[in-house]
Amino acid sequence: MDGTLIPNLGGGNTKLTLSSLDLVVERSFSNKPLSGNFKDLYDKIDSYVTIISGPAMELHGASPYTYRTTNQIPDSVFKVSDTLTSRAEIGDLAVKFKDEVVAIIGLGGSGSYLLDFLAKTPISEIRAFDLDAFHIHNAFRSPGKLDIEEFMKPKAEVYMSRYENFRHGLHVHAKYIQSDSTEELEGVTFAFVCVDKATPRIEISNLLISLGIPFIDVGMGLNREKGTIDGMLRATYFPAGSTHEDINNGMLQLHDATDDVYRTNIQIAELNALNACLAVIKYKQIRGFYADSEQYQHMLLSVHDLSVAGS
Questions:
Q1: 115, 163 in Cβ contact below 8 A?
Q2: Which of 41, 76, 109, 303 has the least C-beta neighbours within 10 A?
Q3: Taking the complete model, does pTM exceed 0.70, yes or no?
Q4: Contact partners, residue 76, CB within 8 Å, separation at least 6
């Protein structure tokens, strides 16, 4: 009221363009009540309006109430409030995903972790495909809480029930993607291929290329030649415009390895998650969310020294 600085408000000058683009934040601040917590969101906003705008309202009859409505991310896909995006000041980056329709083909070890990561990304729509049932070995290589009644149910049903309370735009289908699955992929803007057999990998890759859908294929090759488990994790990006010849360039595994330790269903959830991380990070680099100085299309992570090589 007397023109002095308001104590305990903190913050200061800043500049943050929100996802609506025409709304720019120029100040940051924080002032919690003595109790440490506000009763609810209304109590929080009312407190800040009183502290910041109260003096101008009292002295000059000014009003902070514009009655304008805006969202940090319009039409949020999440069923819970995503307050941390605005707090981290990355709303302009998160909005890059608002028109994305992403397909996950295969919900095995790496595919299930991909679904977990992408479900928490503001993608407009996620379509996941897997015809298999949920078995015991799947429980050891997938995220989330286990319900014993999930065993032998379709993976599509299991994973839909795990994530449908978190977000909108999730569709998990109990079916395989094959060479004639054009209808299932209509409108898809990006895809992840997470199958562990060579023949369907080739078939799916050729389909995506013919449809002009960019995609990332993930895989791993493991061995136990020296007593401990070693091998490689792979994430390979095929941009739109790739040709059918590109899948024969030596980057994809086009033949099943009979001595691959992974096929014995060993429980290595951390490698599945790491494989999924490589793919998601690459996808977000492509969409301009993460920095990408090397712009690799083919990444290999070695288990024994955790080094990443790319081309």
A1: yes
A2: 41
A3: yes
A4: 82, 122
